[in-house]
Amino acid sequence: MGCDIDTVIEVRVGGKWCSVYHLGDETKDEPVETTSEWEARNQWGIPENKGAGVFARLMTEEEREVERSARLPEYGGRDYALFGLLGNVRNKLGVKPIAMPRGVPDDSPRKGKHHGWDEHDENHSHTWFTLAELLAFSWSTVPVFDDALAGYGANHYYQKREHLDAARAEYATHQDFIDGEFADYLDALKDKLRAAPEDIRILMSWDQ
User: Which residues span the domain enclosing 54?
Assistant: First the structure.
């Protein structure tokens, strides 16, 4: 069975982390939960609803259409080499991750409240990175591979050592892990969100 990544973007506004990605998802009615989340939406050009205050209600169609036009990019790729680097998930190559899974941040508004972000549900390997952390990572450095991380043995995906070595040789630097869709995703977040990279956080989990 395949494995896919789920992501949520959070922005820090006034010292508080606010979810901005899934608000107004066109596939379902997402409640706008707090003034802070509404303000976070305004950070990237969503007009304020007059007299909103602190509330919990469904978005109007007009608001939903405005948000669609300003929607943040989505990363929906299925790249197991990248997953290994981000969260030690499906790590067939045995690459040393940027960081081992960190869990859902305690100060995240989604922790334990939304499907996929309770560490006891079917999603796994919950982790997070700030955009600043990913942009500052030394992508030009040579990756470190470890057979133990790969779980290399008789039942490994790469049955022969030469096949594993050949697969690893395709990743001469860390940059080779993110060329393409994920690199474009990070660039789009940097360009679209009106917040400092250290105030942008990407939550990640995997569904299989």
Answer: 22-69
Query: Is this model's pTM higher than 0.70 or not?
Result: yes
Residues 40 and 137 in one domain: no
- Which tokens go with 29? 């009615």
The enclosing H or E element of 186 equals helix 181-192
Give me the number of domains the chain comprises.
Answer: 2
Same domain as 54, residue 100: no
Q: How far apart are CA 201 and CA 9, in angstroms?
A: 6
Structure tokens at 127: 């982790």
pLDDT in tens, 146-185: 999 998 877 788 888 899 999 999 999 999 998 788 998 8
The DSSP-derived string for 141-185 is: SPPPB-HHHHT-STTSSS-SHHHHHHHHHT-SSTHHHHTTHHHHH
Q: Are residues 184 and 97 in the same domain?
A: yes
Tell me what pLDDT residue 60 has.
58
